[in-house]
Each structure stands twice: as C-alpha cells, then as structure tokens.
Amino acid sequence: MKPKFRFTEKALQKIKKENLYRQLRYGRVCGPHITIGKKKLLNLCSNDYLGLSARSPRHIQMQSSSRSVSGNDILFKDLEDKLASHKSQRGALVFPTGYMANLGAVSALAGNEDLILSDELNHASIIEACRLCRAKTLVYKHNDTDDLLKKIKSNSAKTKFVITEGIFSMDGDYARLDEIAEITEKCGAVLMVDDAHGDFAVGDDGKGTAHLFGVAKKVDVYTSSLSKALGSFGGYVASEKSAIDLCVNRARSFIYTSALPAFLVDASLRRLSLNRTPNQKKLQKNAFCLREGLKKSGYEINTKTHIVPLIIGDEKKTLEFGRYLYENGVFAQPIRYPTVPKKSARIRVSVTARLTDAQIENALDVFERAGRKFRAF
What we know:
Blueprint: H1 6-17, E1 28-30, E2 33-36, E3 39-42, H2 75-86, E4 91-95, H3 98-109, E5 115-119, H4 124-132, E6 136-140, H5 145-153, E7 160-165, H6 177-187, E8 190-194, H7 209-212, E9 221-225, E10 235-239, H8 241-250, H9 252-255, H10 262-272, H11 277-296, E11 307-313, H12 315-327, E12 334-335, E13 345-350, H13 357-374
Parallel strand pairs: 5-6, 5-7, 7-8, 8-9
Antiparallel strand pairs: 1-2, 2-3, 4-10, 9-10, 11-13, 12-13
Helix pairs in contact: 1-8, 2-10, 3-4, 3-8, 5-6, 11-13, 12-13
C-alpha cells in the first residue's frame, strides 16, 4: 500500500471498531431467490415490490436493491477486476453514474482535516463533491501548475488531494498531468483524476489520459465513466483496495442507491473484451481532420482532443449559430451559463469514430458557411 493511503486504513479500523464495517456479497438474483456462492436463498431484501422484473428475460433483468443489500450481482466483481487492471490499480468500484462516482469518492476519502485543490474548470460533479465534503477546498487557476504549487504549499492540512479532469469536458484541453503528477509526488498529495473523456479513447489500448502522458502509476485515484467511449452505462472509481473499501463504507452515492441492472454490467464486460484499437485510431483521425478543417475555415482551435469547442461568446448569437447548424443538418449543441461562464457561450463539437470522411467534409462545409454568416472568426 502507498504510504499516502494510510489514512484509509485508519478510517477503516475505526469503522470496524464501531461494528459498522460493510462488506459486499456477490450474488445472482433470479425471481424471488438470490444465489450467493452455491447457496440459494429466498430474497427478502429486494425492492421489486410488484415483482415486475421477473417479466424480463435474464439478460435484461433489472436490479431492485442497493449493492450492499441484495443488488450485488457477481458480474460486478468481474467488471471491477477488469477495470482495476485497465487502470493499473488494485481495486475498483462501479457506481450507477460517473457523477455519483465523483460524489462518492471525494466525500468518502476527504475528511474535515484535509485540503482539496480543484481545477477551476472541473466538472460540476467534482464541484458538488467538494461542496458536500467536509474538507477545505481551494480552487487553482485552470491548468496553472504554478498556482497549484503555491496553494498546495500554503496549507498544512493532514492529507492533501489534487483533483483534475484528464480531458476537460467543455474546453477539450488536456490537463498537464505530467507536471501535476510531479507536484503531487513531491508534496505527498493524493492525485485524483476524472478521466471520463479520456478513458478508453486515448493512450495505448485506451488506458486514458494519464497513460498518454506517461504518469499512469502516479495517479492515486481515478474516477471515470462507462457511458462515454466504452458505450455502455455507469461510472467507476479505481484506486488502492483500502480506498475502495472506504468508498463501500462511506460513499453515500453508493450505499443509498439501487445497483446497476446486471445486463448493463454485462454490456460493459462485453465491450471491455472487444478490440477497440481500430476505433481509437479512427477517432484520432476523425478528430484531427475536423480540427484541421475548422482551422482552415478560420476558426481558432486550441484543443488537441476529440472535444472541439467553438467559442462564440454572446449567448444569443450562439443560439442562432446552433439553430443554423440544425437547419443545415448538423446537430451540435450550444453550451451556455452555468455550464460555462457568462459571455463564453460555445458550440461544443464532439467527434466520434462513426463519422465517415464524407460526413466530416459535409459538416465542415456547414461550419464554414455558419462562421461567415455569424462572423464567428
């Protein structure tokens, strides 16, 4: 175990001493029964009050309980083992959504004697997690490692957490993970990376943003999504086993909610077993072609990822811009306050591997005409 995770063992010891320790049992729900190991039991923990889930075939059967009660299908263990390996971590925990994974991980790991340093452009789920958590939070300027270093040195908190996205969802830029990882390593801080937009999409075999930057082993806690590049549904946390155990025991967004249906867990497992390399290469090619085409049309493009924001600024003009795209066969949503700051409204373009060269060319033609009409460049 990494020395910086000793706080998790201490917290778990306290939970055990108070007889409040939770352990997950993996089972298989079928009708009124649950099978745990080789033991078949009558399931009196389900919330499937009308028994309607029994009408569904097994492969689409819905869960009707939290994972700490009777909703912990054995498929979760298979998926979590694979996700831990995928992120080169010792454990993983699946949540119903990526939003809930952030809420759960941050609130479970950071205590009232701790400090969180959060990038100013972090996702809303991270911002909410910091607000709900008992730790003090300092926001550092976007991707500004000098500001991060200054603020991390200014506080003598018991444990310090640095939280950043891997690829920022609205600006499409990479976090400076190589520099951030160096700072956290020197300062003994816990590095948490929300890799929702980089996971399965970038790095060798889609291992994510930290792998792309060569610092995968320096990230202490990952949160991510199964519903973006993997094309399934849910979210997860990957970290030390003690940190995962603490999430099981403390994360309210894990404890007090129903489990993902088993068929969605199975869908994630199936997608993890696919050869995704051709799709990843096609995604990178498509993103490059779209970015370069937009640059040639006069747009200022600063991103190097598959998220390409076209910043218009004025909210009304951005809505009109989006409407023009819609009327001309391109669906790219206008993004406005509070998702982004006022007067920085934008069209958020996200590229996929499904796009053909012809479709990209057609979209670029529409963007060029829209840019001229609205003088966006």
